[in-house]
Amino acid sequence: MLTTIIYRSHIIKNAPFESFTEMVEAAKVKNEQADVTGILLFNGTHFFQMIEGPEKSVLEIYQRICQDKRHYNIVELLCDYAPARRFGKTGMELFDLREYAPEEVLQAVLDKGTTKYQLFYNDRALKFLRTFVEATEKENYFEIPPADSWVFIADNKGAHTQAEVPDNAVDCSFAFQPMVDPFAQKILSTEALLRSPGGDSPESYFAGLSGNALYEADLKSKKVAFAMASALKLGDQSVSVNLFPMTLVMVPDAVNFLLREIQINGLVPEQVTIEFTESEVISRIDEFTGAVRQLKSAGISVAIDHFGAGFGGLLLLAQFQPDRIKINRELIKDVHKSGPRQAIIQAIIKCCASLEIAISAVGVEKAEEWMWLEAAGITQFQGNLFASACLSGIAPVAWPERKADL
Ligand code: C2E
Ligand code: MN
Ligand code: MN
């Protein structure tokens, strides 16, 4: 199947442009052997390349391109299928946009094309090409430093606080994971993540439970969460706990139970956030928003977890506005390399800015993911890059330091 990949990248400092003309000559021959064709545009700083051909060859060539040390911040913009090649004349052609007057440059590029209809119609690939040539998306290019320009240094000052599981414990425990502002080197809050007594995942804790028993176990477990948070001496720090949205709807008097447990453990409602997974909420939205109103009027904050993962994400924001949304690992993963993820996250950021909703990114594992998200405007992070979830305790946070500053 004829496959198209488009990416954009940044040329490294002091790379002689001539070395690229040589490279393109070599690539041309190899590509033709693999039945791959395309065009490479250069604007003085950025490359834009369209590669077309059989899927396997295109993917192989793209992988090789990603390993080339002469460019960085490679962002895949499109991977799609098409009935015909747009640029099928040669294995690869390098086109220097600087050699043409602005009003001619797009036509000059299109003149290289082989597409039968030299019109845009609805062809996304050609629209990407036009946008690059016209440089109208440039404010969305975030140039991030290489991952190894940072080292992460564990903060052993407040290290490894441990809490005993309280005697009155039901049959569960909790792991704790901080949410941090890495540049400010501040812990913003700590999330309590449900575990079985042996430390197994929430899924395995809930396995075998259904209906009311599931929701009751979810609610009751928060007694342990607040007791352990209190034993960890979080002071006036914020504490987050997770709940199924249906737990608030199905268990009678759930909000009062939470308020009582918060008070018994010496916490105040204003320091507590309840996180809900959005995909669950849809069916009984009126009852759910009623329960949220009760939480809010008692001083508890509300967050939507895994935002964007379910089908109701955006609609939900029209129905009620949480204090915070948390963007999950599925969207964060390799965001620095993915045009679609970047576009989605930028849209979420813009939407939440208009609604004054705080945003945090969860599941951040790579320095590049973190740096891209900082460049996009996110300042609150949770993830193994900084601190992993720790059973009945809090792991020391690894703060980033710029190597040049050490
Ligand atoms: P969540 O609220 O989004 O919690 C974050 C999950 O991501 C945690 O998994 C955490 O261990 C994991 N995580 C954190 N940093 C990283 C990272 O850098 N990489 C990766 N790959 N994972 C990371 P966990 O503890 O297994 O929890 C899974 C989900 O279970 C939670 O997602 C939450 O939705 C749910 N959950 C947790 N506790 C409770 C609870 O008390 N009640 C209910 N109803 N659900 C809970
Ligand atoms: Mn959560
Ligand atoms: Mn999760």
What is the secondary structure topology, with strand pairs?
Layout: E1 2-11, H1 17-33, E2 37-42, E3 46-54, H2 55-67, E4 71-81, E5 93-96, H3 102-111, H4 124-134, E6 150-154, E7 161-162, E8 173-181, E9 186-195, H5 202-206, H6 211-231, E10 238-243, H7 245-250, H8 254-264, E11 272-277, H9 285-298, E12 301-307, H10 313-319, E13 324-327, H11 329-332, H12 339-354, E14 358-362, H13 367-376, E15 381-382, E16 389-391, E17 393-394, E18 398-402
Parallel strand pairs: 2-5, 9-10, 10-11, 11-12, 12-13, 13-14, 14-15
Antiparallel strand pairs: 1-3, 1-4, 2-3, 6-18, 7-17, 8-9, 8-16, 16-17
Helix pairs in contact: 6-8
The structure holds ligand C2E and manganese (II) ion (MN) (2 copies).
Short summary of the structure?
It is built from 13 helices and 18 strands. By secondary structure, the protein is an alpha/beta fold. An eleven-stranded mixed β-sheet has the order 7-17-16-8-9-10-11-12-13-14-15.
